[in-house]
Amino acid sequence: MSPDRARDHAADMRLSNAITRMPRPFTKGHLGNFQQAVPWASGDIFDLLQGTSGSSPYLHGLIVKEADWLESALDDLDGALPAVFAALREGPVDKRAADLRIAKRRVALLTALADLSGAWQLEQVTGALSDFADLAVQLAIEATVGAEIRRGKIPGATEDDIGVGAGLVALAMGKMGAGELNYSSDIDLICLFDETRFDRDDFLDARAGLIKATRNMSKMLNDLTAEGYVFRTDLRLRPDPAVTPVCVSMDAAEHYYESLGRTWERAAYIKARAAAGDIKAGEQFLNTIRPFVWRRHLDFAAIQDAHDMRLKIREHKGLGGPITLDGHNMKLGRGGIREIEFFTQTRQLISGGRDPDLRVRGTVDGLRVLTAKGWVPEDASDKLIEHYRAHREVEHRVQMIQDAQTHDLPRSPDGFERLAALSGLNVDDMKRDISQRLEEVHTLTESFFAPDPTAAKPDEDEDTFGENLIARWPSYPAMRSSRATEIFERLRPDIVRRLKASARPDEALVAFDGFLAGLPAGVQLFSLFEANPQLVDLLIDIVTMSPELARYLSQNARVFDAVLGGDFFAPWVGVEKLTADLTEALESEKDYERKLDASRRHGKEWHFRIGVHLLRGLITATEAATQYAELAEATLSSLWPVVVAEFARKYGPPPGKGATVIGMGSLGAGQMHARSDLDVIVIYDADGAEMSDGPKPLSVRPYYARLTQALVTAVTAPMSEGRIYEIDMRLRPSGNQGPVATSLTSFKDYQQNQAWLWEHLALTRARAVAGEVALGQEVMAFRDELLSQSQDRAKVLKEVSDMRDRIAQAKGDGGIWDFKIGRGKMQEIELLSQAGALLCTGAPPANVALSLKSAAECGWLDPDTSQHLAETYKKLWALQCGAKLLNGEQIDPEQIAESSAQFLCRLAGASDFQELEATLRVAVETAAQMIDQSLQAAEG
């Protein structure tokens, strides 16, 4: 750097060049002493020091005591504190307590002057104070832990362990954890130690040594000496502080939070940070308790918990009532700092379990990311950030006057005049500004915490509407807790009003009653509805139209979380994005069972989304069929490597080339409905290997058989989050009599030499959906080659005709509302389309319409027949897809709700239910006759 540029850079670093505001002296009583101490001060620096000294007795004392250091520090604003920190690190341990106090004076003085002059913004001020706190705690731990190590009181620890506190970590909580320390803040620490560093026999001695070190660390920071103090240190946020020592093992803390942790502790851990000592162990601990802090589901019950905490604090501190400035607590009072922090933290708790981006520590950062994610409107966020910064500056000036740990505004006119002078403001303007900000913060945050009491007023005739059903509600399982009942009583009038406003109120009430009766618990869901009333309308739509989806919701109510994610009604993301998202979710879980539960949560939410989109007409039945199939494929594709990895821990990696999962039936065809199970076969290639290589090696055949069973269990086992799908493996070679996993060699031999025609027909719908890609491609290439071989058309269609007759004899016709079984219905059309795929050259398409088109192009199916069968199949599939979503069973025209009937008519393009039935009968009968003619012509 040239001399001129160096001089310019040095000038930029001077505080005098960054002043944007100026305090004024409230009193000139100390100015003679002040002027003697800083003869070097002139211009704006003199005015700044004079205004500060004349309004703050505490800062006056610091200026006088640190005048010599201050002169050079003000000429190097950016470098002064790093120099203080470096000197501390290099200082001797035996003088550390005194050096820390000197450093504290200098940090306090420089940050105050940078703050009062406007040279630093709030985040720079709080960041500097927090950085010093981190360093102070680290150096105090090194000193006290080092003393215990040298005394031989921490078994196995050496001088090399001093820097990491011999496994002791100080978790910074509250404002220190967030890097937001206020000017005269205490520091909240939770001190833990990593018990795994010590042998079992040494645990008690190590624990005793670290407890003593923690106490001495706290004293080094906290005790008031002739040099002052460093930080008031509070260790009471640790688990159960009344009965636990000042330093707790991580294992004990983990067990406490898992079993007894409370909502306020969850909120506290939002800002927790490993600040000093064994940082790595501290970060691992915070990751371990992440599920305690960040719930997997949206946690709107946290709103009530936070509201209750606020009320208790107000009651305990006597801070209720209207806002008055005299003595108002800027932190805990109405409209104060804590209101903004609670508002931010509670919203983070609600959804941070689902969205890691929300897991930020700072209040301003929290509000910004909540806005970016759509949880807080931008105008509200901007106002709260502005008010938060203004509140914190007022808080700092209140504390600067006497270095008092207070948040209370003055109670006297002189007190307000002094505060205004230190702030460089007119007292009336300052009071008006503070009052307006407090009122606006209270208005913005209170409605979030406290429900509008007027919303619970019942309609005059509510008692006469469905009184017999409504009278049963208090006895339902969802109401077993008093808290659930309390929330629901606030919701009930609005729910009843919405039910009455629906197209068919009585029908809607009965449907809602069925949902409520099946709900096993209510607190979380009712809290969700209270915070998001629009979800009640969606629920009423669903339960009225689809009893099946209503039953699903009763047992899986947390899928409502997905509706609030912001993209619930966005276009379909496709199988690749589904797979990538689920893979990422599974990788974030370390425990195998949690991975399986994560797969279930993912599957249920997307399953629910598809159903809602279909009910609301956002997608067609054909699109829903594709989406259900892609969801199933993504689930299998993501789960397979997880199952393989878990299985390999005991039995070793898959021997040979691994295995592929082949989708059959509706999965293979890429066309599923809400109740479809998964037809799969597993094919492996040992490639000459005989055994697996693991702790418990297995020969190839039992290895892949057990691996396949592990996959089936991973998908079908009823975990805490339920199951995803049922799996059907009867389409494997030899059906239920064959092995659950088939070698590639055996599969090829069976299909070439032993398979029945129906098995080759089934292969027309096969496709690889999971497992080793190269092996899947090899299997599908073999399938294509096998099925492209020349076939005897008459023989194939004769067997198809015979199969059709056997199915009719075994299952009957099924009636007009059975869309799958019977003459001219889906199963018969599928059989004919599969025959078309088998008889025509080229890769056989799984799609029914394409297969029928191929049959027409090959010349054995009439084009008009092909078109009619394709159209009939599409209509039947749409009705099948809709019926499975509505009630999971066959439609009963005598019992079907009007809204459900309208839904089916929409899917089939009919104006009413009578037209639907009439057109359906004609289409099916025509299809049956066309199939008869096609098969008879072939036989002839």
Automatic annotation (TrEMBL):
The keyword Aminoacyl-tRNA synthetase does not apply. Keywords: ATP-binding, Ligase, Magnesium, Multifunctional enzyme, Nucleotide-binding, Nucleotidyltransferase, Transferase. Residues 309-449 form the PII-uridylyltransferase/Glutamine-synthetase adenylyltransferase domain. This is Glutamate-ammonia-ligase adenylyltransferase. It holds the Pfam family GlnD_UR_UTase. PANTHER family: BIFUNCTIONAL GLUTAMINE SYNTHETASE ADENYLYLTRANSFERASE_ADENYLYL-REMOVING ENZYME, GLUTAMINE SYNTHETASE ADENYLYLTRANSFERASE. GO terms for molecular function: [glutamate-ammonia-ligase] adenylyltransferase activity; ATP binding; ligase activity. One of its GO terms (cellular component) is cytosol. One of its GO terms (biological process) is regulation of glutamine family amino acid metabolic process. Residues 55-287, 538-778 form the Glutamate-ammonia ligase adenylyltransferase repeated domain.
